[in-house]
Amino acid sequence: MLKNIDPALNADVLYALRSMGHGDTLVLTDTNFPSDAIARQTALGRLLRIDNVSAARAIKAILSVLPLDTPLQPSVGRMEIMGAPGEIPGVQGEVQAEIDKMEGKSTPMYGIERFAFYEQAKKAYCVITTGETRFYGCFLLTKGVIPPEAM
């Protein structure tokens, strides 16, 4: 246990988040996503886990240490529902609320068609799977920067 580190973040996940650079992406997935097969094609090359928590809980833990990319470009993508790309299921609504809370402002997610999501996921730095059992609990996050402290 470490002080001020969310206990949902295990050593492997912390290592990956710290190793990522500005503009690198991570994929956060539900239990139905082909996480292991996709993870083998990422920069890290292996699957990471934040087990037994929802996607929203995992997002909260991740955003406690990971800066999102600037508001000049979208920084969080969501897998669109096939046949209903504009529909926001409960799991995505919960994640959106957590993102807004952690960022202190509205930070809308952008939609990614399901098969395009798979292709983008293969190019990510890493894949982190959660215990989320609801469909379409899959997200793509782009890492931002932490500015230097004022002198």
UniProtKB/TrEMBL annotation:
The keyword Nucleotide-binding does not apply. GO terms for biological process: fucose metabolic process. The keyword Cell membrane does not apply. It catalyses: alpha-L-fucose = beta-L-fucose; beta-D-ribopyranose = beta-D-ribofuranose. Gene3D superfamilies: RbsD-like domain. Keywords: Isomerase. One of its GO terms (molecular function) is fucose binding. It holds the Pfam family RbsD_FucU. It comes from the Bacteria. This is Fucose-binding protein.
